[in-house]
Structures are given as structure tokens and as C-alpha cells.
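#dry-run=false #mode=assembly
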Amino acid sequence: MADVPLREGKTKRLLPTEVPGRINLYFKDEVSLQNGKSIFTIPGKGAACAQVSLQVFRFLAQRGVENHLVKESGDRLLLVDELEMLPIEVVVWNFACGSLPERLGFEPGAVFREPLVEFFLKDDSKDDPLVTVEHLEALGLLRREEVEALRSRALKINGFLRDYFDSHGIILGSVKLEFGKLGDHFVLGDEVSPDTCLMWEKEGGKPLGRMAALEGRREPEIYARVVSLMEEKPGKEAYVYVRPKQGIMDPQGQVTMRALRDLGFSEVEDVRVGRYIILRIREGSSRERLEEMCRRLLANPVIEDYEIRWDD
Amino acid sequence: MAELYEELGLTESEYKDIVRILGREPNKVELGMYSVMWSEHCSYKSSKTVLAQLPTRASYVLQGPGENAGVIDIGGGLAVAFKMESHNHPSAVEPYQGAATGVGGIVRDIFTMGARPIACLDPLRFGNPEKRRTRYLLSGVVAGIAGYGNCIGVPTVGGDLYFEDCYDENPLVNVMCIGILPKERLIRGVAKGAGNAVVLIGNRTGRDGIGGASILASQEFDERSEEKRPSVQVGDPFTEKLLIEACLELLDRGLILGLQDLGAAGLSCACSETAARGGVGMRIHLERVPLREDMEPFEIVISESQERMLAVAEPDKVEEVIGVCKKWGLNAVVIGEVIEGDRFEVYWYGEKVADVPPSTLASGPVYDRPAERPAYLDMLARADLTSLQHPRDMGEVLVRLLTSPNLCSRRWVYEQYDHMVQLNTVVLPGSDAAVLRIKGTSKAIAVSCDGNSRYVYLDPYLGTQIAVAEAARNVVASGAVPMALTNCLNFGSPERPDIFYQFKEAVRGLADAARFFEIPVVSGNVSFYNESFGTAVYPTPIIGMVGLIGNLSHRRSLAFPGEGLGVVLLGETKEEIGGSEYLKVIHGRVAGSPPTLDLEKEKAVQAVCIEGIRRGWILSAHDLSEGGLAVALVECCCAGEVGAEVMQDESLHPVYWLFAESQSRILVTAKLEDLEELRELAASRGVSFRLLGKTGGDRLVIEGLAEFSVAELSRLREEAFLKLVEG
Amino acid sequence: MRFGVVVFPGSNCEADCYYVLRDVLGAEVDYVWHGESDIDRYDCLVLPGGFSYGDYLRPGAIARFSPVMESLKGFAEKGKFIIGICNGFQVLLEAGLLPGAMLWNESLHFVCRYVHLRLENDRTPWTHLGSEGQVLRIPIAHQQGNYYADEKTLRALEDSGRIILRYCEPSGEVTRRANPNGSVGNIAGICDEDFNVFGLMPHPERASEEVLGSTDGLLIWRSIMEHARGNG
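#status=ok
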């Protein structure tokens, strides 16, 4: 029962659940370019998009952006509130990329003073045409003030996402958002993933996910890389001992020594009190970088020595 | 669940109440929330009915008890918020962090009202100073208060410190904070407007402090207390400082509708109290709460991680709210929204893990505990003190008193506190009250904390009245008119009828005295279960008094301000040594009745003092308290670095003249040419006026009884304390 | 002369400095957020006391990496003025704008009290209104004010007159007893080679009004303001 989809799209299946008003989103490995004219499979793509969407929706909820996510319900499954989806895609552009240069003649990479917002009607038979506020009103889809509210909401979401991806070493070129009605108000739905965003890796500038696919790449790494950039996995521990230099007066050591002796530990000859710092370090660091951390911040070379313990 | 509710400290009938309220068995998360909210610490279930008799109103009271702090109007568009709280149990387990987080908690209570914290005071009670544990607790607590208060830039300007054996295992660490605010910035811990966002600001949540304040403060101490160490919270004053700045900025920019700090019982308390006060509900999603470690829902709702605030904001303001917090380097996440109805819904990854009426969490049960007069009261009151053999050498008695733990210098303590930051402290620690000027006005406020627990032990009703009278007198001696008070009532287990008798009598004394002096009680705190191994501490109500000085030039300190001034004692000295320091230090006894208190006379003495100051006749003033006249003279001389020569009162035995602790007395100085007018003023109010002598020279001479150099007295007082802390 | 009072997260004397400069001395003054790097419009920057970044790790260790600190070097080289008070002094030391380092007070305790300071050099922009040997009464409030520098640095400071203030008795005598924190040579305040940068542990802003008990701190504020006017 539960695996007979309610609906199936090009990249996702909507599966029923036992809870009324809740459905499961199943993320497929298919990639669809040029509005479905080119469809192919990249293994692991579905799981990657589910994982990134999960993280993004959680983050957005913390920023007060209502969305349909309930929880992760499987490897490439998200349990979500069932929305009455608007047949509209809202795309926010931070700079000219993707289809923009070709469509409108922008210099690729041109940065806009304010991000651009575009509305597209979801209709493959019409090639998902760009629509104006007037179109949306005339089609009876949205009132003008609702369009404005969606626009400002999309801009706000884009702002949050730009910072969020940036903190994970990802540059966000554009994001496609879809909204739906839950009760009487609009809620962010669908997915926010490397398949709906155009993104690049900050270091090296390599395209990621859909952007890489648009450039003809088909290897699983283009999606998997986004997941690993977003992953907050624990690194390896390094230990730094900072202690007063020989010959420097150490009031803490002196007082501690007196206290130990008062307690009857007369064998104590000297005490020096320093700091013991445990760092968790991501892959790709080096002893040289640790040395630099010590020199620049962790120790004060005027009064302190340091020692690093790290298996590199 | 049956075993769990007992483990969580709920009684069977309380558990049945919960089942009745919900119409079903509570789940673990719900039970956790009820257990912390219905603990004595959060619910005041034993004290509520007794506290109802306190006078709380006056025309200038903007906020009385029931909020995070009391607030009074001081004119000119300004208001003062203040409150006192205890952190006794956490401090007994881990003195540094216990005291530090105590400061953090009370400071949050103040800026939660929209006030900028301008001063803290810390009344402390410790056990026998000869004991190693006492020294460990004392130095830890003082360092904790200093470490936290100094870092956040709120000066610690006063407090007091007493040693009694009854506090050996269970020290008292009370903390009072005062803040100032423009009246229009006053905000309350109220949620309103369904659909509005609930934002959690500040530190990430961890398992620390689970059940800390609420559970610790609702049980007495035993051998297992040590094991509870992990549940003591760790303070982060840096984040607190950022929270102060961020929250005040949020308020100044009108971005939030309600603000509440997370203290005891964490999210459970903050959410249910704000919802209950606003008559609304709340829905929160626990998976959005930033965590420090893996935690389950049960833990997240009751965690007492420090330095967290809950704000309610309109949805379109959320972005700006988050922006302000980000500027200050603080986390801010929307964890839920205000909803209609009396419902508190808690979700965990989409699953509802709790659904209870917040009003029932916030109100809790009410108990009318039995009280019974303890037998020791009559026994000690009957003690015959008339046949005591008094020593001959009054000078020697004076030295023994001056160097005794309760009367020697407190410099070692207050010099560890930054008491000057913010540039308002115009009367420094060591005087009767701290005086804080209010920049941009000619006004100042005077603050004092008092509570002689030995008096309260000997007579709970009278002892507490004395605490109120003395706190008011201290503020008056600084040139201020008492405006309002806060309190912290530290007692043993309310489940013991003898203890509950002490509590009821003390509150009756507080209520009667406050009503008589027309000083409203605007905030307060009750700390029960201050016991160890079955023995309760002395009943210790501490009064925090706030007074207003209309004209800064009327501020006074206790220091003799110069040579050639008349030294005058206002008020009568009686043959009273019951409960005195003299009796304790010289005769090793705690017995008798505390000094008598005639409220009318007290009022008259205070009126004369204030009037004398306003007319410019009284140049310094010092309330007479522990150690009596002799000790007061020493304090005035040492502070002013000037000597004095005073006469004996032949009608009294020297012991009473010098060391009786008769109430309603103030030692003042005035220019010789003003003495006559001051005498007439005193006479007009029926207040006894006695010219003792003159200031001058570098020696304190008490005619025929004692003579010391002032420098020597200073040295003795200072060295005594150092010896005490350093062993 | 325009003052800028730098605000680090955790500063807590910035409002005090601002108040004294604006309300007591009538100077032009702004707050400068630590994230700002454009500080050209100021003539004198004040690094106030407090606990920048909670004093976590070491006092001043983290604050020194603020953008405003990066701009500070160039600022001093242009002949403009920087005064670091208490935590501000610690920041200057960590940033290498002044030599030496701070150790814990010998007592290990925080200490807040009035101290007496002997003015050691009256030919600086910060002190020219005073006279050498003059005793100032100004409060201190710190836990790590035990100044340390190696022999060579100390000699250099001494020889070039860059030790500006020393803890002393009320009489002006520099004694061990008068030293509140154990600092080497009773040093309470020093300058850089050009006397543009001044770091001191005592708080002159706390001794700038009669009502607070001392006005000796005004000597420093007034000296630098007069200096900017071309006097002294």
C-alpha cells in the first residue's frame, strides 16, 4: 500500500502514510534537464538531495521560515505535511548564471545589486513559461499582495540560504522555491537541494550538483560532494599544551604549590600552571597550521611555550 | 510512571492531580515538566498562601510580585527594577559556579524587564570560619560572584556576610540585582498574539543543570549531595553580557512583544509562564533547539542550561530579531509559535510529545502546611542574662568583638568585586547602604541588604520586623527615603511544623513592618529545605531595601567627615544583650530575646535623620547594629581616618552602653553650631538626642573605658579577616 | 579632537569612557564597533576596559584580531593617538603595539580599589599637564595586571622614558607594599616609542568627577586634548 505512489514526478515520488495530512517524499536518482527533455540517472543523487533538503528545511525552521518538513523517514525519504501546491516556481538569482545569460544577455557571473526574483508557471507542455504579476492575477492563481508576500518571503529565504551555504564553503547562485497551502497560509514545500539550487564550491570554484550536470558532468561525485561539504562530521583531536616559559613568574603555580604543601604534600618542589587545549580538526590540516594557531592565538610567545600532540 | 513520579519528587496526590487535569496518564515528558514546575522552588506551593498577606501596592509601584522583578517609578520617566534570589543549594555543591550562576540568573531577571542592570548586592551566610570547608565555600563563592559580576560589567556594591555554625553544610548565597529603565521600555514575560514567533536566544542547550535549581532547592542535603554535582550549571558571563546588550537593543528597536529568561525548569517554565500570563497557548518544536550534545525531549524541556532567553516577536520582525542577535554573536532560533487556547504543545520531529494546559503548569498545587511553635523558643527566651559575669576591661572586649568573624573588615570580599564600573557608585562598599547616582538627574538610589538571623531564630516575628526596620534605617542613614523592598526568605523544610511556624511568623513580621512603614514588597524569593543532616539553618529572611535620594548632595556615608564635629547618638540605649554579638563572642551564647522594637520610635528616629540631612545639619550617619555603639564608633573613625573622643553614659553599665544592640539608634555627626537645631528637631519628634563628644585627632577615646589609635583599629579589623580566610 | 571608543564584544567600560569624554569633558566622541576598519575620522581611539571575549583564553588574545585592530597599526603610524585602559592595555600588549605581557595578579584575586600612582614622565602628550613625581589617586580593577617584560625590554622602556606610571605610596615612594598586583618595577602604564600609544591598568575614567571621589584621571584626558589643540 505505502509504496504505491499518490503521484510521481520526474525526480520524486509522493507516497501515502497512515497519518492523514502527512506524506512521504521519495527522492529519485533521475536528473531532469531542459524541462524534462533530457532525463538521466546519477546513482546517489536522490539520497543526496533528500539529505541536503532535510538539513536546509531544519535550518529554515529555526529561522522562522515555515516549511513542510516533519522528519527524515528513511534513506531517501522525508516525511512532510501534505500541501496544496501552487503551480508556480519562484526563482531567486544572486548573480547571472544558469539560463539567465542566454535568456537576457547578462554577462555570466554579473552580480546584481539586489537579487532578482522570477516567477514561472509549472507546465511542461508550455515549457514552464516566465509569468508576471499580472499573469498570476489574471490566471486567478494569486492576488497581487500575495505575490508580493511570496516575493519578499523568497528573498528572505535566499538571504538565509546564502549565509548558510557560505558557512559550508558553497556559493549559491540561484535557488528555486515552491510553496503550497497548509490550512489558510502558504508554506515552503518541495525540496531545496543541489537539484533546485545552482551552486559552486567556494574553494576552487568547481560547479556542484545540477550546475555541474548542466555542464555535462554525470559522475555521482557532483552531488555527493555537496553532502560532504554540508556534513558536520567530527574531525580528529589534536592536543596543545601551553605553559609559562621557564623563568617567568607564575603566580598560579606558586599559590598552588603552597596549597599542596599545606595539605601535606611536602615532596612538591615546583608547580607551573598552564592550559591544555583540545582541538577537533577537519581533514586536510597540517602540523604547520597547528603551529600557526599556537603562535597567533593559543599561546602568548612573550610568556608562554607550547607543545603540540597530534598524529598527522 | 508510578516509580518515575516519585523519583522526580512528586507526591502521589500530585500525580493524581496531573491525571485529573489531563484526563489521562501523563507521558514521561509531561511528567518531567510537571515535576519541575510543581517543585517547591518553582511553584511556591507551601508559601503562596502565607505570602498573600504582604502589602505590595503603592501609587509608584509599576510591577509587584509575580513577574521577573518588581518595578517602581522614581519620577522623571525613569523606573527601577529589582529582585533578590537565592542560590544556596547549587553553591553548597559547587561554590564558584553556584554563586556565579546565581548572579547570572538574577541579572537576567532584571534585564528581562527591560532594565539595564546597574548593581548587585550579595548577602552571604557561612558556617564556622574555623572549618576548612567554610573557607573553601567562602573563597569559592566570592570568586564566583566576582568572576561573573565583574565580567558582565555590573558593579557589586554591597551585601553582607555573617558566620554561624548552623550554615556549616548549607551556606546561604543570596543575590540582589537592581536595574534602571526608561518607563516606556518596561516589558513583561508575556506571550501574546496567536501566530507570533517564539524565539530562543543565547547559549546552546546541554544536559547540565537538569533538575538543578528546582530539584536541588527542593530537597535537603545529605550524603548524596556530592553525587548531584553534574547537575550544577556552569555560567558563561561573556554570553550573558552579550544577552544584556542584545535584549536591550531588541527592546529599544521595538522588535519584541515579550521577554522571559530561562532559569529553573528551563523551557518548561519559560514557555508555560509566558503563555499563562498572556492567557494564550504555545507550540514548540524541540528539534529546533540548538543542542550541545545528544539529548532526548524529556531532557530538553527541563534543562537548566544558562544564558538563554525566550522572546515573542511578530513573524515579520523575526529576521531583524535574528539580525540583532547575530550582530552580538548570539544564536537565535524560532522554536515555535503562540497559539490560541490554554495549550502547551511540544513536538519532536513532528511527533507530539506533550500537550498540557500551561496554566496548570504555572499555577501548581497549594498547601496549607501545619505550623507548631517550637519548644526551643521559650527555653532560650527564658535564659537569665542578668547574672552574667561581665569582663572588666572594655577595651579588650572591644578588640575581641572587632576581630570576631562577624564584625571584622569585609574589604577582602568587596575588593574582589568591581564595585565602580558604570560610574554610579557614589558611596562605596563598607557603608550602611550603597548609593548609586542616576546620571542625567540629581537623584540617587540607596540600597541595603539586612537580616540578622540570630534575632529571627530567637523570635521569628520580632527578628523579621527588626530586619525591615534596620534595612530602612540603613537607607535613611544614607540620606534616602525607603521606597520598596524585596526579600529572600531562607528556611528549613516547610514540611516540618516547627520550621513552618518560623516561616509564618517571619512573614507576619515582614508584612506588619512593611505595612507600618508603608513600604511595599515588590518582589521576592523563598528558599526552603536549607537543612543538612536533619538540622535546619537559622530562619533567615533577608530584606533588600531600595530608597530614593532626591538630591545627590543629600547622600551620606558612615565615615566621620572631619575634625571638630559633634558626635551625636539619636535614639535610646537599653539594657539589651539578648542575641547580641557580645553575648556570642564573649560568653559563647545565643540566647535571650532580641532587642525590642517600637515601630513608632523607629519611624521618628528615621524621620529626624532624614530631616537633619536635608537641612544640612547631619554630615555623616551610621545605623547602630551588631556590636553596638562601640563598634559603630570604630567603623566611623576607620572609614573617615579620624579620631573621636566620647563620654560614658553613667546611667548604664558599660557593657550595655557600648555593646547593647538596641534598635532605632543612629550615630551622626554635625557641626557644633548646628547641634542645637538638631537637638530641637529630635525633641520635636520625641527622639532621644545625646551629644557624646567630638571628632578629632587620630585616636578613638571612650572616656575611662578604652583608647586606641585609629590606625591600630583599622589594622586589627583588616588583619582579622585575612587571618580568617587564610587560616 | 574626535575620540572613538572601541566596543569589543564583552567590553564593559566603553559607556564610562564615552560618558566622561562627552558629558564631563564636552569632547566629540563616537562608539567604534570592533568590526569597523575605517577609523580615519578619529584623532584618538580609546580601547576601554572590560572582558573582551570574556577574557577567555587570555585577556585581549581574541580581541586583537578584530578588524579595528588591523587598522590600528596604520592609525598609530599616522601620528594619531591610542589609549588602552585595563583590558584595552591587555589588547595592546597582545597585538604587539606595546611590549610585554600580563600575568595573573600575585594574589590571584581580582582587585578593585584606589591606588596611588607616581607620574614618571611629564613630557608626553598624555601627561604634559602634570609634573614628574606627582601622585595621582585612580582606581584599578583587574585580575591580570601583573605586568611583565624581559630585562632588555625593561631597560629600553626605562632608558627612553616610556614608563609613565608606577604604583606608589600616597607619599610618592615606590615600594613593594604599594604594588597591588606584583607588576615588575611597579609599572602601571607605558608608552610606545613615539608616545602615541599609551597603555595603563588604572581607570582614569573612574577618577574624572568629584562626586566619584577623585578627579586625578582628568590629567590624562585634558593633556591629550590640549596636545591636540597644539598646546603641550
